[in-house]
């Protein structure tokens, strides 16, 4: 190492340490990201040409192994593993050499796509398994559909991959293992992001002005209720009912829930049964659906709202109009293959809400994140909404 290289490294190291200290002090997301960038620069500076070659030249072998695993039916067999599958079972499916299976599985395991229970015994690694199969078949889907943007929730990459004609939610209801993996993923997904009530001004925007004998929050498509449970823990004395709505298969999957949270089996493509609530909260719902379907959901919500009192809170990514980051762009691809859904920019959100007579009042973004809350209210009476419900 030359003296100059050594000096550069020590400058970068000092900078990286300073940014880590700044993150410790402030606990701000922007500071954490800044620290990651500085540490990554330091790591790159430490790399030798052989390290870079290893990364660039050899990393596509992971994609190759995934493609081969898909051709050998491995993801399907893994997704049905009860509780594991063996190398012998995997090799029998397509009469493959066990040695080849073991080599492919080693790559999948060390990259987190499966795990090993014992030598030659494999378990699925959460939701990845169901997604991987769809992702592997998505290029074929696009060849078949002449590269049209998927716009039908019942005819997208998932339906092509699993040869089914229902929505992804119908498919989950028919596949209880996958449903459990999905709900567990959604519950765990938030552990690294602050709960919405920690950064949304709940007191000012919701509780002040809330009427005691009216529903306070309706969590529409709220899964097994983790977001309302989090709300109740932080605001135990808030007045007004908390209502959790989801499909029957999800509501029936709930083992234990605070008695103060009312469970309602509800299809959000049907009229909203809870009228005049202070807030209708949708977390990670709209990105699962094309605009046409979102308009139906929002139209039913608008019809249940009381003008000047009720609000719609949509917690999702607000994709920057330019230079979107990896999280929202990769999620955009994921919802595209899973449910023909999409992530939206602020302009697209404005257009969507405006088309059902809702107006954005605020966009709340926790520091350094693009996942935030869009707060909207009724703009015009629902009767004069330019959109009328025709489907479902
Ligand atoms: C991506 S998950 C989000 C769950 C929860 N809001 C969260 O963020 O953790 C989408 C939810 O929408 C529900 N869902 C899908 N179709 C629905 C429908 N037609 N009516 C009501 N809920 C539905 C699913 O069961 C699932 O719980």
From TrEMBL:
BP terms from Gene Ontology: methylation
Protein's recorded name: S-adenosyl-L-methionine-dependent methyltransferase
Domain of life assignment: Eukaryota
Example GO molecular function: methyltransferase activity
Biological classification of the source: Eukaryota, Fungi, Dikarya, Ascomycota, Pezizomycotina
UniProt keywords, alphabetically: Methyltransferase, S-adenosyl-L-methionine, Transferase
Domain O-methyltransferase C-terminal: 211-357
PROSITE patterns documented for this protein: SAM_OMT_II
